[in-house]
Amino acid sequence: AATKLASAEKLMYFCTDQLGLEQDFEQKQMPDGKLPVDGFLLCVDVSRGMNRNFDEQLKFVSNLYNQLAKTKKPVVVVLTKCDEGVERYIRDAHAFALGKKNLQVVETSARSNVNVDLAFGTLVQLVDRSRGKAKIIPYFEALKQQSQQIAAAKDKYEWLVGRIVKSHNEAWPNVCRKMQPAPEFQDYVYLEGTQKARKLFLQHVQRLKQEHVERRRKAYLALLPQALDALVPDLDEIDHLSRAKAEKLLEAKPDFLKWFVVLEETPWDATSHVDSADSERIPLDLLETPAAEQLYEAHLEKLRNERRRAEMRRAFRENLESSPFVTPGKPWEEARSFIMNEDFYLWLEEPVYMDIYGKHQKQLIDRAKEDFQELLLEYSELFYELELDAKPSKEKMGVIQEVLGEEQRFKALQKLQAERDALILKHIHFVYHPTKETCPSCAACVDARVEQLLGSRFVRPAERHARNPLPDANADRINLVILGKDGLARELANEIRALCTSDDKYVVEGKMYELSLRPIEGNVRLPVNAFQTPTFQPHGCLCLYNSKESLSYVVESIEKSRECAAGRRDNHAAHLPLTLALRGDAGGETLQSLVQQGQQVASKLQCVFLEPAPASAGYGRGISERQIGQVLKALLDSKRNLNLLGCTAGLRDASAPAPVPDADLRIVMCLMCGDPVSADEVLLPILQ
Asked: Does the keyword Cytoplasm apply (predicted)?
């Protein structure tokens, strides 16, 4: 109860971290070793102590208070350890204070840091009356406020730790220095202390490490099925092995170290392998975990299921081959009920069976078509009575089908009647045009094979000097303009394309030519209807008409085209070879009148006029396939002559021509003098 104390070189303490570590903190001594006492905190332990009687303690406190009261200094009663306080003790302590004049009581807990500042603040206010009076808050209310404040500070501090600490390898000293200026760190340390702040940091680092290890584990487990597929894809190899023997088998594989790594220390997640640069490979001890064992069992089950599905696919194919209900062209919906059973549905989905069935059907259809083609060759006499270039009538087709109808090879294509009829028509075309292009054997045709063999064994003569070549650009190409209004041009173009091969090639005199058609039905002065484009150089024009109006359109279009060519000084377009043809179903006097008008126009335009094909030939529209061939042959002849003229013109117009052989000079003179020389006579010396 003394009011004046003296203790030389007494250190001042300002935080609990100093205890035992005085040298690490600022050392500050009390002034002159003397200290006046301005007030007293009278502490009363209200917890249940061992071998301690609270009544006796309270009696001691009462005597002590009497001594303190004599000093005339302020006194505050502080109830300590209220976090473990006994309600009766607290009540008796308050009753003791009520019996004294102006004796204030503050309920505290140093462990929870509740009302400790309030106790000192209350005493300071009693010493210095100029300060505002502190409001005394009961322990449990203060504890609630303190908990809320700590929780808010903890949330902010954890946010700060999460923002700064991104790696589980961070150390506390470095992180502590980084967080020192942050108010979130300062507030939490003030409320809870450095040790709790460090504890939260360690918890965060441990959580980061667990997340890192879990990511690694998931990556390894995701890679394990691929490793098993690569190392042990054969079910027979591992089907009856124990897990230990299977592990030994894996280690014996040549590519084992490509997928796995054997660690000296285990388990892998407790070693430095977690952060190793070689952590992409799977640690072998991972195979001993339950998750890896499940994946191994799943791998076994997958191999067993794949084998079973393969067996089902094989059984299904065998069922298709042996079933009499599966015929060429039969839809899956009709065949399904005859060939499917419960086992098939159990192991494979229906789209798989449909795919297998589709491939089997293709094989059946191809085989049936080959057999039917052989049948047609065996009955060749059925096709001798047809006229050249004629299409069979319905009656003739009926006779053919009636004769072949009893044959099983004919019945096999019963559900593919359209394709069967197409094969008959194709066979008729082959009978009257037996070339390698129309041969049913396609690439296996003997003519084609002989041509390939000859081409591979014989070398062609060397080309002539580049100064005087025969132009061979577009030598195997025919560009034909088809002119006609009201759909005439497009209709004929479609018919001609139907006679071509799949890659738009046409046979003329036994040779294959690439045929390019340009149907025009509008104003030829417009670019979209021009005879010539940057990518299309016409070799000739086939003009069609079926009335006076359409004939007038042809005349006007030709005149406009020639005017445009003259304006461009395009001599080739101005003298483009023309053929005029009547196309229609007219008869009697009308047909005769249109023919006469067409002949007059052809004479005026100086072009060829095609007589309409007889109706008995099966071409009611007026132009036969043979006439189309004649038109194309005439274009080829004209094209050859134009090429030779261009060649000789190049010799004639050269400003300083090189010496020309005698044969070339003779060709030049013949063409310039207009001697009646055929193309063959001109070409023969050059070819020789």
From this structure: yes
Token representation of residue 74: 């302020």
Question: Residue 469's pLDDT is what?
Answer: 47
Secondary structure (3-state) at 232: coil
- Spatial CB neighbours of 376, under 8 Å, sequence gap ≥ 6: 423, 424, 427
Q: Give the span between the Cα atoms of 189 and 659, in whole angstroms.
A: 108
Strand 4-6 to strand 34-36: parallel, antiparallel, or no bridges (unpaired)?
Answer: antiparallel
- Tokens at 601, concatenated: 């126009």
Question: What tokens were used for 275?
Answer: 């952060």
Q: Looking up tokens 């027979």, which residue turns up?
A: 236
On whether the CB atoms of residues 487 and 450 are closer than 8 A, the answer is no
Tell me how crowded residue 619 is: count the other CB atoms within 10 A of its CB. Answer: 20
Cα–Cα distance between 107 and 123 in angstroms, integer?
A: 14
Q: For the chain, report the end-to-end CA distance as a whole number of angstroms.
A: 143
Residue stretches of the chain with pLDDT short of 50: 462-473, 616-620, 645-680, 683, 687
Tokens of 509: 């005199």
Domains and CATH numbers, the chain: 38-137 (3.40.50.300), 213-305 (no CATH), 332-440 (no CATH), 477-613+621-642 (3.40.50.300)
Give 470's DSSP letter.
P
Return the HEC string of 162-222. HHHCCCCCCCHHHHHHHHCCCHHHHHHHHHHCHHHHHHHHHHHHHHHHHHHHHHHHHHHHH
* Helices 417-432, 394-404: crossing angle, 10 deg rounding: 110
What is the token pair recorded at 497? Answer: 């394309």
Q: Which residue has the tokens 């009547």?
A: 582
d(CA 387, CA 364): 34
pLDDT, averaged across the chain: 81
Q: Where are the beta strands (DSSP E) in 245-397?
A: 260-261, 282-283
Residue of 364, 368, 387 lying closest to 376 (CA atoms) = 368
In angstroms, rounded to a whole number, what is the distance separating the alpha carbons of residues 463 and 472?
11
Residue 561, token pair as written in the block? 């085209």
Q: Taking a C-beta distance cutoff of 8 angstroms, is the pair 374, 409 a contact?
A: yes
Q: Provide CB contacts within 8 A for 369, sequence distance 6+.
A: 413, 419, 423
Q: Cβ atoms within 10 A of the Cβ of 607, count? A: 17
Whole-prediction pTM: 0.47
The Cα 533–Cα 531 span in angstroms is 7
Pair type for strands 505-508 and 511-520: antiparallel
| CB contact set of 266 (below 8 Å; sequence gap of 6+) | 283, 285
Q: Please give the Cα distance from 514 to 594 (Å, whole number).
A: 33
Cα-flanking dihedrals φ and ψ of residue 333, to 5°? -60, -35
Express each pLDDT in 231-289 by its tens digit: 999 988 888 888 888 888 988 999 988 999 888 888 888 888 878 766 788 888 888 89
Instruction: Express each pLDDT in 27-63 by its tens digit.
Output: 777 767 778 899 999 999 999 988 888 899 999 999 9
